[in-house]
Every structure is written in C-alpha cells, then in structure tokens.
Write a structure and sequence with these properties.
The structure is a homodimer. Chain A is an alpha/beta fold. Chain A folds into three domains: about 1-85, Arc Repressor Mutant, subunit A; about 100-175 and about 280-310, D-Maltodextrin-Binding Protein, domain 2 (3-Layer(aba) Sandwich); about 175-265, D-Maltodextrin-Binding Protein, domain 2 (3-Layer(aba) Sandwich). In chain A, about 50% of the residues lie in helices and about 20% in strands. The interface of A and B includes residues 9 and 73 of A. Chain B binds a DNA duplex (30 and 30 nucleotides) through α4.
DNA sequence: AGTCTTCGATCATGGACGCTGATCGCTGGA
DNA sequence: TCCAGCGATCAGCGTCCATGATCGAAGACT
C-alpha cells in the first residue's frame, strides 16, 4: 500500500520542512510555527516515513542541519504547493469580498497619464458592470508584490518581469527621448546627441523610479556621471523645469507632453534601450473574464497608440 | 485568525472535492474513496468552513449537485496541487529506486534508427556514470502518458505536444520525402510530383504511427484516397518493398536509408508539412543534471544533423 | 579533562478531531 | 401517497498528534 502512505501526507509536514529549511534548525522552526521541538521532530519523522527517504541530514550536536538531495527536491515541490495554496486562498478571499465584479489594477505614473484614460473609458463602456479599483504606487516593486499577495488582480509593469509566479502580456515599447528647452543648442543640433553630450548637461530627473534608474545607469555607462540638478515625482513638474531652462531631461516618451511649445523633444534613436510596458498577473490565480477583457482592451489601446506613433 | 483556518486545510478535503466533482454525488464519492457518505459530508462541511464559502450547490432530494463558482475555482487549484503532489511522489520513488544515475528515455522507431546511435555514443562518452534506459514504444501516445506518470524522465515526441504538464525542446524538423523504386517514372520526372499524383500510386506505408496518419490525411486532402497496398512497422521492410517495386512510400526523411541504390528519394519540398521532433519532459518533476545534459546533447547532435542536410 | 550548551530523538499521556453508523429531512417520481 | 435517493446531523468511539520531560550526542569553553 504505497499509495496509502502518501494519502497520509499532511500539509503541515511540508510547511514544517520549509520552515526548517528557512530557519536552519528544528527548534527555531518549532518556535516559528508555534509548536514544540518535539512536534516538529515527529512531523519530519512521519514525513520521512511517508516518502521513504531521509530528507534532512542531522549531524548531531550543535552542528547545523542540511537537506539531503531528496529533501531539496521535495522542498521545491512543497514550495510550489504552498504557493498554489496561497493563490487559492487569495481567490477565495476575493470571492468572499464580492470581487466578482471588481478588478484591482496597479499602475505607475508614466502609464497613468497617457494610456489609462483611453483604456478606462473604453473598458467601462464595454464592461459597465465591472468596478475598476486603481492603485498607483510610487514604489514600483510594491506592485509586483501586491500581485503575488493577491491584493491586485493585474498590474502595469516594465518588462521583463523578474522570476516569480507571474504571467504577462506585452503592451507597447516606449522609447526614451531627450527633452530640452526650446532654445537649447542641443535642439539646433542636426544629429542625435550622444549620451556623453547629454551627460554634460544639467539634468532634471524623476525621484524614485525604475525608468530613471535605467536612464542614469545608461548615461553613467557612457563615461561621465550625469549631473542631476533637480528631481521630481511629477511628469509635469519635470517638463516645466526643462521648459524653464533649468536643464534637460531624458524621459520615456509616454511621460512627455508633446504639445508643450517650451520644450523640444528629440528622438534618441534607441541610444537608450526603450522600456517595454506590459500587464502582469499572477500565474496561479483565477483570471476572471473581466481581467482577460481588460488585458485585451489594453493591448488594443496600446496597439493603436503605437500605430499613431509610427504614422506620425 | 483567518490564517489559522487555512492551516487546518487537509489534502483529503481537496481530494474529496475532486472526487465529488468527478462522481457527481457525495455518496458515490464516498464509495470511491472508501469512506462513509457521512464522512465526505463532514469533509466538505469543514472545507467550506475553512474557505468561508459554499463550494457545492446541493439542491436537495435526488437532484444532482453542482459546483459553485468558488468550488470550480478551488477545484482547479486542487487539481494542480494533486498533480504537483504526484510529481513529488514520482521524484521520491525515483530517488528511492536509486535513479540518481539513471535516465529513462522514450523513443519511437524513426528517431531510434538515425539520431539515437550518435546521441547515445556522445552522451555516454561525456557522462559515463549515467545509465540510459531506452523504452521504445509502438504506440506513441503511451510515451507521453508514461512521462506524466513519472515512468519516463524524458521522451522523444512529434511536436506540438498536447496540453498537459509538459515542457519540451525542439530538436529538428524532419521533412517528408517520397521514396520510389529506382526505375519509377516518378523518379524521371523533372518536377516535384503533386500529392494527387502520389495518391494514384500504390503506397507502402507504416502500420500504426502518428507520422503515417499525418501522411495519409494529407494525401486524402488532395482529393483521392491513397491506395495502401502494404503496411509494416519496420523502416527497412517498407523501403525494401519500395525497392522491390511493390509501391512508393512517403516517409519522414529520418526513416530513409539514403544509401539504398534500389530506391530514389524525392524531396517533396514541403508539400506535406514537415514534422518537428522534440524532447518532452514533465514540467513539475525534478530535472537531474543528467537529464538536462541529455537534452543539450540531443540538441547539439540534431543541430549538426540539420547542418549536414542543408550542406548536402 | 571536565562541564556546559545546543540540538534532535524518544516516550507516555492527554486531548482533539475525524470516521462510523443510525437517523432525519427533503424532494421528485411511481 | 408512498418510496427511493441524497445529504445533514448527532453521539460515540478510535486514532493520531502535540505536549513536556528526559536522554544522547557532539562541539565549545575553561
């Protein structure tokens, strides 16, 4: 009755294995789990009896324990199962909270200003029953974490997405452009300025933002550390400062108001690799029809935006 | 203490949910699981208490039950968890059987004859410690099922792979060629024969084989049902019959001995879409270094084979 | 060398919890 | 109207798991 043995496998066993692996000892794990050391010891003993293999190497004495190969492999499965369980829990809590007709969307500023209005208008037209809850975050990392924790159903994100339980869809590639005051010598230049030339200018930048970090590291790679004279969180403020002659800025095209007569927007022709904006969601969680429709609408809207650009 | 509630979740609860969904009633599920109806009833009750939502709609009386939305979603998670658990079990059993240095590979004949010798020679040279166990199957479907059940670590397969817990790597595209007796009028033809012309010929084919089904359906699509005068499982027999003038054959190039002077091999120039051969393995199972090396070696060998072909 | 400390294993015990078997309520069909 | 099918409920029993104390092993410190 091998199969029967595995039926006796308990989730707490797997949790114990993971906790021990994290904490580094039976006793610590017991503390973290609210059990006695004895209990954890017995849990691992049963687990090892079930799988028929030693999972943890206990050298004895105060020496640190280690996972055997079987333990390592089983741990990976255990983590996957726990993750899936968390996803299930998130789905159930969402249903419990009456989220059937609600969609929680994470955004950041450069998306919010340009893409969202069109997208939201079109989506609410076609899906009037769905309530959209927007969550704009200054700290972009937070958005992914919220998706993982099930606090967001889908979020905008700058691809690629780091490893994790995610799936995503590419929406549009957003090139970086140089924004200079209308009278700037760089505007009169016949050719595209080099990164080094840009680094020599006083720079107006964003405060905390993945895009800005990207720009600065690219500029720094050109040999000269950029001289950032002012930072702001707000797209309009940055562009206003540039228009006032405080400095130049390198921004994603999406954040730039191209109708502003005080500034000149210069295509950098890929000297800084463009960022790719996409929508990210949790791989394991339930995707409601509303969520799928939202992604599709976003793809459509962004596709049209890209088409407009190439036409212009 | 919401979190505590979820800690009490038991695998048997999820199994019960799935069994009920499969069997269609509490009582049947109880029978299938070896429990009492009462027990199953209580299991679902606790499960619903844990998740805080009604999972199964019981209309009362002899009417059939149905899953609620929450039940459907949770069931999907439950199935994923069960699948992962089976993968873990397969990994543990493999380790228990001392499979650390063993690699079980599924093949079918057309791969076996051409690719395998080179691949095995090179792999055993670079990995002398790994014992390779080959499993050649006439019934190709069986190979995938064996991978799913954990009885094979990796298998050759004709892509695309149907949905399931699989990952794969493309190895090479194997075009279909027409094999005719040396004196055949088709061999004298200046142009590539059409599928209809081929259908008019007596055909020598393979017995049961995905490739053959593919060929016949393609030929049938050309308007005339092909006239198969003889079938064999064996590549050599098929080619021998063609050489003896019994008929012509449409075969994957990999299965053809191009050195045979009795036959002429005619490129069909993609008139029948080529098959793509790949290696498939279980998405959730542990991939040993040996398995990964095997895939890499296979890719290398097949890459060289493809290069030789284009050179010729 | 001896003692202390740390850590996991072991054991008996008490309590919680899940399964059983019987019974009840409900509903649709004969 | 009665009956069959199905799930809910309840008391009782058995099992199994966490507890708390104790033990053995092995490094660290004096």
């Amino acid at each position: 009755m091998d199969a029967d043995r595995w039926m006796g496998l308990d989730l707490r066993h797997l949790v114990a294995l993971k906790t021990i692996s994290d904490e580094g000892s039976f006793g610590k794990a017991a503390g973290a789990l609210g059990y006695t050391q004895s209990a954890v010891s017995q849990q691992i003993a049963t687990l090892e009896r079930i799988v028929g293999l030693r999972l943890i190497e206990r050298p004895g004495g105060p020496r640190p324990i280690s996972l055997t190969e079987a333990g390592t492999i089983l741990l990976r499965h255990a983590e996957a199962i726990q993750a899936r369980l968390l996803a299930a829990k998130a789905d159930m809590l969402a249903l419990e909270a009456g989220d059937a007709g609600r969609l929680r969307v994470g955004t950041f500023q450069s998306v919010g200003a340009r893409v969202l209005p069109t997208l939201l208008r079109r989506f609410t037209e076609t899906h009037p029953g769905v309530e959209i809850v927007l969550r704009e975050s200054v700290n972009e990392e937070e958005l992914l974490e919220m998706v993982e924790r099930g606090e967001l159903d889908v979020t905008f994100w700058t691809l690629p997405v780091e490893t994790g339980p995610y799936e995503w869809s590419e929406l549009l590639t957003d090139p970086y452009v140089l924004v200079v005051p209308a009278g700037s010598p760089l505007a009169a230049l016949k050719r595209t300025p080099t990164l080094k030339e840009i680094s020599l200018q006083p720079l107006v930048g964003f405060s905390y933002c993945a895009a800005m970090n990207h720009v600065e590291s690219q500029l720094a790679a050109s040999g000269r550390t950029p001289n950032v004279v002012f930072r702001s969180d707000n797209n309009g403020t940055v562009q206003g400062l540039v228009g006032a002659g405080v400095g130049v800025s390198v921004s994603p095209l999406l954040t730039v108001d191209e109708g502003d007569a005080d500034v000149v927007v210069i295509d950098l022709l890929g000297r800084i690799p463009p960022r790719v904006i996409g929508l990210v969601w949790h791989r394991d969680r339930h995707r409601s029809p509303a969520a799928e429709a939202f992604v599709e609408t976003a793809r459509a809207v962004c596709g049209e935006l890209a088409a407009e650009r190439t036409a212009a």
